[in-house]
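Severity: low
Component: inverse-folding endpoint
Summary: output formatting inconsistent between runs
Steps to reproduce: submit the following structure tokens with default settings.
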């Protein structure tokens, strides 16, 4: 992550707002992964149900597996970025406590 090389105690408001925008972008990206994987799963189920046991059902099963793998990949990336953000919130709370400010809850 690009914020590892910076000291959180030296961040200014603009830096923390950038982190908040990063969280929102992370959520949008996860929703995009979910939308795409759901589309693949539904397409796979449609191929399996309506096109019988030929090449189309094979494509359907492949689509099901790809959709599931894509969603798990999106979930892993989302949780990784969220965990990184939560460590930054802890650092922000420590910095605010040093300056007698109010702490932010994650």
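Observed output (run 2 of 3):
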């Amino acid at each position: 992550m690009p914020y590892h090389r910076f000291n959180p105690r030296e961040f200014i408001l603009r830096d923390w707002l950038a982190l908040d925008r990063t969280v929102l972008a992370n959520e949008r990206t996860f929703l995009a992964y979910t939308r795409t994987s759901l589309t693949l799963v539904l397409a796979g189920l449609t191929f399996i149900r309506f096109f019988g046991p030929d090449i189309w059902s094979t494509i359907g099963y492949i689509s099901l597996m790809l959709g599931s793998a894509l969603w798990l990949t999106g979930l892993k990336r989302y949780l990784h970025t969220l965990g990184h953000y939560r460590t930054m919130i802890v650092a922000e709370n420590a910095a605010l406590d040093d300056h007698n400010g109010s702490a932010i809850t994650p």
